[in-house]
Write a structure and sequence with these properties.
With about 120 residues, the chain is mainly α. The protein is built from five helices and no strands. It has a domain of about 80 residues. It is globular, with a radius of gyration of 19 Å. About 15% of the residues are buried.
Length: about 120
């Protein structure tokens, strides 16, 4: 029985991988968006929740990776405004580059006491 369950899982995984492989051209990440796309979405109001949620998650990931809770020193609206400014200054850059730049900017603007380690 255990072998049957393992075979079924392997088959399902294979089918899932094939499905993803076939859809590869349609899959994109907000991380790969040029800043021009960020700006267009923010100015039009078209589905701004998705890129804003992505940025919040990306910044959280950076905080966890660097073990520094710099997000305690900002608010989501400030992050979105910072990305707006980054994208205006660097329209050819990807939004992921903006996230890293904003994280570092927040980190370097902190008081001399270090942020709480995660």
């Amino acid at each position: 029985m255990a072998d049957d369950a393992g075979v079924r899982r392997a088959l399902l995984l294979s089918l899932a991988l094939l499905a993803v492989q076939g859809a590869r051209a349609d899959v994109t990440s907000i991380a790969d968006w040029p800043c021009a796309e960020w700006q267009q979405r923010r100015s039009s109001g078209e589905r701004v929740d998705a890129p804003q949620m992505w940025l919040s998650g990306y910044m959280t990931g950076l905080a966890i990776a660097r073990e520094l809770d710099v997000l305690a020193f900002t608010r989501p609206a400030k992050l979105f405004e910072a990305m707006d400014k980054f994208c205006t200054a660097h329209p050819e850059q990807h939004v992921s580059a903006g996230g890293i730049a904003i994280f570092d900017q927040i980190l370097h603007s902190l008081p001399t006491t270090p942020p709480r380690a995660l």
